[in-house]
Amino acid sequence: MARITVPKLEASSFKGWTFVLIAGVVLALLAIIDRGGLNAITVADGSTGCQLEVTTDQLNVRNGPSQGAALVETLPRGAHVDGTRVVTDGFRQLEEGRWAADQFLVPLPGTNCA
């Protein structure tokens, strides 16, 4: 019968794993910050008179009113954004000339988005 031996782990063996763990956490935090994850639920300031809430898990925001327009950011469900009354080809114009699919945006009570 074959005998299995387990090598004894030295304390110095864990120094490398500590570095890997810390580096992994730092990289994960940088990725979250880069994707806007820490500011995930934004608060609309009402500057346009039309405030909208995102109703889908992730809403792509583009630089024009079409699927082919460049992606500028992604908003999570529940995010509040300032929009305009302009809807073109199913895309609503948001603040700063950005566009998002209108079907995934619901006007907040008391705002004028019609």
TrEMBL record:
Q: Which organism is it from?
A: Pseudonocardia adelaidensis
Q: Where are the transmembrane segments?
A: 16-33
Does the UniProt entry include the keyword Transmembrane helix? Answer: yes
Keyword annotations from UniProtKB, A to Z = Membrane, Transmembrane, Transmembrane helix
> Domain of life here?
Bacteria
Q: What is this protein called?
A: SH3 domain-containing protein
